[in-house]
Amino acid sequence: MTEQLIGFLQQYGYGLVFVSIFLESTGLPFPGESILIAAGIMAGHGQLDVHLIFLASWIAGTLGDNCGYYLGHRFGHRFILRYGRRLGITPAKYAYVEREFRRWGPPIVLVARFILILRQLCGAAAGTLRFPWWRFLFFNALGAALWSGTYTYGAYLFGNQVDRLLHGNPWAYVALAVVFLGLTVATILRFRRGLKNLPDEGELPLSEEGGEGGPSLR
């Protein structure tokens, strides 16, 4: 079983990192961060290339956020809230996220990846608010690089130290699998709990459809 897990991560690790982070960045409660950490630890064990993991996560995060931006810019609140309700994204909560984006402007995109909920809704909120796309792309790509580098190389260093201590013991990979599953469950629960904890401040107004700024994507 352990050998099968290692083989799966070795064969599909880069694709799994890319797909999971891309989906998470479009707004889905997918455990992209957990998978990235697991892949980084595997790289520390010498099973994956840490630089390829970084590139996969960076590109996926940037593309995923831009996909969310397009959806928000092109289809507006009705589309986001229609499907977001299934994930617990109410109009008041989405308006709260938009208010934070208005408060800080495009630079909030730089740090949004490090904050649960904002990471998932970053692109969509920037799109519905019509942030200028080139400014969004700049801060988004830079923020994705900082986030990917922090988690990828941080997990890599951790995995490298574990490998030195356990000398390649196969039980280390069993422990890794348990940690991965735990992080996956924790990510989903944190996402749902975070949505519940967002303030429902009455009827916070959503931004107007077709607001100022941004290129025309229609």
Describe the protein.
This protein is mainly alpha-helical and 218 residues long. The chain has one domain. It is built from eight helices and no strands. The chain is elongated. It is a multi-pass membrane protein. Keywords: Cell membrane, Membrane, Transmembrane, Transmembrane helix. InterPro entries: DedA_domain, VTT_dom. It is found in: Cell membrane.
Structural class: mainly alpha
Tertiary shape:
elongated
Uncertain segments: 210-218
- The share of residues in helices is over 70%
Provide keyphrases for this structure.
mainly alpha; 8 helices; disordered C terminus; 218 residues
Secondary structure elements and their pairing?
Elements lengths: L1 H24 L6 H13 L5 H35 L6 H14 L3 H5 L5 H11 L4 H34 L4 H27 L21
Helix pairs in contact: 1-2, 1-3, 2-7, 2-8, 3-6, 3-7, 4-6
In short:
It is found in: Cell membrane. Helix content is 75%, strand content 0%.
